[in-house]
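Recap for those who missed Tuesday's class. We walked through two folding examples back to back. For each one, the amino acid string is listed first and its predicted C-alpha cells come directly after. Nothing is annotated here on purpose, so try labeling regions yourself before you check the end of the notes.
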Amino acid sequence: MPQTWNALKQRMKSHFIPPYYQCDLCFKLQTLKQGDKGVEAYYQELLIGLARCGVNEDDADASACFFGALNHDIQNILITKNGINFPNCIILLLRQNVKYRDASNTSLSGLIMGGIYSSVRS
C-alpha cells in the first residue's frame, strides 16, 4: 500500500490508464487547430491539452503554438500588430470575440480598422 499521495497517484495511474494514453494526448495537442471554433474555445482547448500533457512553456513557446494553429485570417490580423506579446494577443482576440466565420464574412481591412487594430492602438 502506498504511503504518500504521489505514490498512490502513480500507482493508480499505472493501473488504470493505458500506456498509449499519454501519446494520444500529445498527438492531439500537436495536431490541434482552431478550425471553426472561436478563439476562446480554441484557447481553452489548448490550455487543457498543455495541462494534460504536463507541458510548461514560456510565453514565446506558448505563443508560437497558439499562433501556428490559428486560422489564417486571424493570423493575418495578428501579423499586422508587430510586437504584441502573447498575453495581450489573447486578451485582444478574446475581447474582440473573433471567430473564423466572422473573419471570413468580413473583409480583413474591416476587422483591422474597425475593431482589433483600433483597440490595440488605444
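Example two. Treat it independently of the first, because the proteins are unrelated.
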Amino acid sequence: MEVQGANGASSTKAVSKHRRGGSSLRKRLDQKRKKLTPVTFDRKSESFNQFLRNKVIETAKKYIGVPYKKSLLEPTDPNYNAPLFLDCCGLVKRVVLDLRRYFGFKIGKWNQSYQYDTLPRSLSFEELKPGDLIFYQGKYFDKTKKNQIHHMTHVEIFLGGETGESTIGARYKTGTIQIFDSYKFDSKTWELSKYHFKSIDIWIQGICKSFCGTHRWARFKRKKNKDSESVESTTPTITKNTSKKQILIPKSH
C-alpha cells in the first residue's frame, strides 16, 4: 500500500515500518501467552494443593541468603547494606505475597502469632507435608522482654528433605535465611515449650483470617520497622475465595 504524504511524497516505507512494528508486538504477545496456560482449578483438589505447596517451597528457596535484620549487624558486615531483610515470619509473609495470584490474598502483616491464629488445623509431625508451618512456643530468657501472643517465638517452613525433618527459615538474628537439616534447635534468646505443626490447607483454599476468639488483631496499632518485615499493619486481610477460579499457571519445563 502506498500513501501520499503532505508534500506528495510516498510514505510506503513508513507504513511498512508501522506494520512491522505491529507484527513484532503481536509476536511478543503470542510468545508471552504461550508461556501461560489457562487452567480452571479446584482449590480443594489434591492437584492444586500439591501445585501450590511446590510453589511455596520453590519461592522460599529464592530468599536463601537474605539477612535477618540490619540493626543487628555491624557496618562492617557484608550483609549490612543488603537490599532486603527478612525475619522468620517475614519470610512466610513474603512467600505468600509473591504467590498471591494463587492464594488469592495477602496475609496480614503481623508476626508469627497472627500466622498461627490463621491456621486452625493442628497436625502430628508424621502428618506434616512440605509447605506446612512449624511454630515454636517458648518464653524469652530476658524477663524484661515482653512475651509474644500465645508465646509464639518463631516459625519455619517444613521441607522434609533427605532427613525428613528439614526446614527453611530465618533462625539466627545475625544470620541469613537457609535450609536446616532439622527443625529442632536450641535458641539463645528463648526456651522452647512446645512445637506446633500447622497445615496450610486453609490458605490454599483461599481463606486467611484469625480463628482466635481471644485476640482481636485489628486493635493492634501499626509499628514501623524499616529493617525487616515484621509486625506492621493495622487491619488483617480476610479473604474468602470461591473454590473454582480461572487462572494462568506457567507451564513446567
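Answers for example two:
The longest helix spans residues 12-34.
The chain has one domain: 38-246.
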